[in-house]
Design brief:
The chain has helices spanning 24-42, 58-63, 71-78, 91-95, 107-120, 137-147, 166-169, 199-212, 235-243, 255-261, 269-286, 295-298, 310-333, 339-351, 362-375, 406-418, 430-443, 453-463, 468-474, 493-502; strands spanning 45-50, 83-90, 99-100, 105-106, 125-131, 153-155, 187-191, 217-222, 251-253, 266-268, 385-389, 395-399, 484-487, 505-508. By secondary structure, the chain is an alpha/beta fold. A hairpin with a 5-residue loop joins strand 11 (385-389) and strand 12 (395-399). The longest helix is centred in the middle third of the chain and has 24 residues, at 310-333. The chain is globular, with a radius of gyration of 25 Å.
């Protein structure tokens, strides 16, 4: 039985996201050539800091339609005979259990996941570096776990003298106090699960140790955003600013680059502010000028040259700005960010003439919630709506009921639509839903019978053994990957996890769907 179905299938339209705006193969070819050219130019070992996400860079794939979220891994695989990887993770992120929101896992778990996936791609992981280590118990346990699985782990303390005393930083008391990480290949990729992981400090520490051993080594940075050869206020660059609002990142014209080369280039404030210090450290380590005249010079990013449809990328980036607004508004509601973060993204939206309603699934989700209220179909006094835009532009909606969460109703409605199953045919037999509800309340002592999305998908898989129609629609779940979804409320853990596994682009209103503070 599908409860809470809202009979609203909107007119078809052609979503801008279906237009390819980025040539991934061209980018891969140019990016690998640029890195190899940098190594050749230095004729020595290159420590290459990888900014952003190494794997599953969904932000990039959303704002650059056609960008493969694993293109960095493709790049590493292409260079695997010449490259190896060092993974950095900030001890404080382990201790605070910082989360990677797109997967719902902690940074330390993400580091382990990255090691596994690099191995599957045939890329060598040389070591893990725990930065700003101070013997925190949770961090020691993480270190022990990796070492007992055969992973080499190094710990770096906070660098003495940083950031003002360059003489101490570049000395036996500063970088010299860190253990040297032995590497073998000409390209050492230094990456981490998030910003502030200590990648730059690790690179500079390694350069110091290489120089002490009589070997020349150099540093460069590979970071996709902001894209240096796009205009400052280009929507793709503004979307990056929106994505990092909590870090207070601001895109700026790199005045060092403009002065040195007479060419405007876009960079962000932290790199521009840090450049004079980084250049002094590099000069001091190698006892000669680094040759870098700007922070943009340090980069090897070629993403701008992969754009083949600027209008498609601008449109996709505008949608990402709106997504970031909703995401930060929800994080503010649950206490994860401050009000200034939300206000910053709201200002970016206004500058580009955007409103929440410009996200096509927002209004239908609100309409579904209103219809749930009009029908008295809610649960525990709350009326929730959800909407999804299918790849062909159709909008499907769902609402909550005593039997199903709004998200559960939405996904069942969507796959019935994709499979052309009539409304009157049920996917979940009452026998199955009663059994699951009984298990939740009478066996597990839960307070609510309404099924979240994870529970609904389990019930659907059970139904498939009894109902051929259920078996048919399950195959259409994969067609929801990349679809846009909006909820009139913040999702429960089971809804969020289920939607994450389906791979949809989710936003929601910063409204709670239950009076309970704890939702298991």
């Amino acid at each position: 039985m599908v409860a809470g179905r809202l009979h609203a299938v909107r007119n078809r339209r052609t979503p801008m996201a279906t237009r390819i705006g980025f040539d991934n193969e061209r980018y891969l070819e140019q990016q690998s050539a640029a890195i190899l050219e940098r190594v050749k130019g230095f004729n020595s070992k290159l420590y290459l800091e990888f900014g952003g996400k190494l794997l599953f860079d969904y932000h990039a794939s959303r704002v650059l339609p056609g960008f493969n979220p694993n293109v960095k891994m493709q790049l590493l695989q292409k260079l695997r005979e010449q490259a190896e990887v060092v993974i950095c993770i900030f001890a404080g992120d382990i201790e605070k259990k910082k989360m990677r929101a797109d997967f719902g896992i902690t940074y330390d778990t993400d580091a382990q996941k990255t090691i596994d996936e690099l191995g599957e791609w045939g890329v060598t992981v040389r070591a893990v570096v725990i930065t700003r280590f101070d013997n925190q118990p949770a961090v020691v346990a993480f270190k022990n776990k990796l070492e007992r699985r055969g992973i080499r782990v190094y710990t770096h303390r906070a660098t003495k003298g940083y950031p003002t005393d360059v003489d101490t930083i570049v000395s036996a008391e500063g970088y010299g106090a860190n253990p040297w990480i032995e590497t073998e290949r000409p390209i050492v990729v230094v990456t981490g699960p998030g910003p502030g992981s200590g990648k730059l400090a690790t690179c500079l520490s390694q350069l110091y140790h290489e120089h002490q051993r009589g070997r020349n080594a150099h540093y460069a940075k590979f970071e996709t955003f902001p894209i240096w050869n796009l205009p400052l206020k280009h929507e793709v660059n503004v979307a990056y600013e929106a994505a990092t609002a909590e870090l207070r990142d601001v895109n700026l014209i790199d005045h060092f680059h403009l002065a040195a080369h007479g060419q405007p280039a876009v960079n962000y404030n932290r790199d521009i502010e840090a450049f004079p210090l980084v250049r002094r450290i590099l000069d001091r380590i190698n006892d000669r000028p680094s040759g870098y005249k700007s922070p943009t010079d340090m980069g090897v990013n070629r993403a701008g040259f992969g754009i083949v449809d600027d209008a498609a990328c601008r449109a996709a980036a505008r949608q990402e700005i709106i997504r970031r607004y909703f995401n930060y508004a929800c994080e503010y509601a649950i206490g994860l960010v401050d009000r200034e973060t939300v206000d910053r993204v709201e200002l970016l939206m206004r500058e580009h003439g955007l409103t929440p309603a410009d996200r096509v699934v927002v209004s239908p989700a609100h309409a579904a919630a209103r219809q749930a209220q009009a029908r008295g179909k809610g649960c525990d006094g709350f009326y929730c709506g959800a909407a999804i835009e299918l790849k062909d532009g159709r909008i499907i909606t769902g609402m909550n009921s005593p039997l199903l969460h709004a998200v559960s109703s939405l996904i069942l409605n969507a796959i019935k639509t994709l499979a052309a199953i009539p409304d009157q045919i049920h996917l979940l037999p009452p026998l199955v839903t009663r059994s699951v509800s009984h298990f939740k309340t009478d066996v597990l002592k839960g307070k609510r019978t309404s099924l979240d999305l994870e529970e609904t998908l389990i019930a659907l898989s059970i139904s498939a053994t009894l109902n051929p129609v259920a078996e048919t629609v399950i195959g259409h779940l994969k067609e929801l990957n990349g679809c846009e979804v909006h909820l009139s409320h913040m999702p429960s853990p089971g809804d969020a996890a289920g939607l994450r596994k389906l791979g949809v682009n989710l936003t929601s209103e910063p409204e709670f769907a239950t009076k309970y503070l704890f939702v298991g």
